[in-house]
Amino acid sequence: MDNVEREDSRVHQEAIRLNRYLSLAGVGSRRKNDELILSGVVKVNGKVVQELGVKVDPLADRVTVQGRPVSIQSKSYYILFNKPKDCITTLSDERGRMTVLDYVKVKERIYPIGRLDRNTIGVLLLTNDGDLAQALMHPKHRIERVYRARLERGILDVDLKKLRHGVRLEDGLAKPDHVEVVPGTKRTEVFLTLLEGKNREVRRMIEALGYDVKVLERIAFAGLTTVGVPRGRWRNLARSEVSHLRQQAGAEV
């Protein structure tokens, strides 16, 4: 039994704080769960609980969120998915398009750590560990995201300099941590490293400079890559990789 499974077994036998119970059940991070508790949508054994710090018995107590029963996941999942184009980074799509869950099929409820837009390919992590997901997405932890962008024409020196110094977008300045031209591509491909993830940030920066993005791939997230994982396929992370993510995300997880 590995460390993840040992922790799962232990929490099933002990009274734990309600916000952690909800996190282990895949509802969200402990901070987000505190907000749910305070809002009055969480019930324990049929009674609304709005007091933070309340403990529950995972084996005996019945917990619901907005009337829906929730229970601790029997296994923690940490998955690396090589997202293909035209895959939607949501759990469902009202227009019937392919989502990540059409590719990654596991027994427990999992969700993506952050998002990639429909046309962006590459590294996407999924988990049912709400605290780790929230920590990895928080800007203060400066999680490294590396992208490879293929443009419709070679980028000029003046525009490369603008990228490096930051591009003003409607929601503020977007400034990559590192930018370089991919050797041997006639300046049509660029590596960009970001330490936080705004919505469609790479595309918007490049388009603001007057270039079209033909292909955008996230080639690394927190040092994890898709090496050995074909497009549209996935694998479970090794224990060492999960430990690495927790270190990147801070001691609280």
Radius of gyration equals 20 Å
Shape: elongated
Per the CATH scheme, the topology name of the largest domain is Alpha-Beta Plaits
Largest sheet: 8 strands, mixed
The strand count comes to 16
Question: Between the first and last Cα atoms, what is the distance in angstroms?
Answer: 21 Å
Order of helices and strands: HEHHEEEEEEHEEHEHEEEEHEEH
CATH class descriptor name of the largest domain: Alpha Beta
Number of domains: 3
| Number of helices, counting only DSSP H or I runs of 4 residues or more | 8
Which regions are unreliable across 5 or more consecutive residues at pLDDT < 50? 1-12
Features:
253 residues; alpha+beta; Structural Genomics Hypothetical 15.5 Kd Protein In mrcA-pckA Intergenic Region, Chain A; Alpha-Beta Plaits; Pseudouridine synthase; 8-stranded mixed β-sheet; 4-stranded antiparallel β-sheet; 8 helices; elongated; disordered N terminus
Offer a quick outline of the entry:
It contains 8 helices and 16 strands. The chain is α+β, with helices and mostly antiparallel strands.
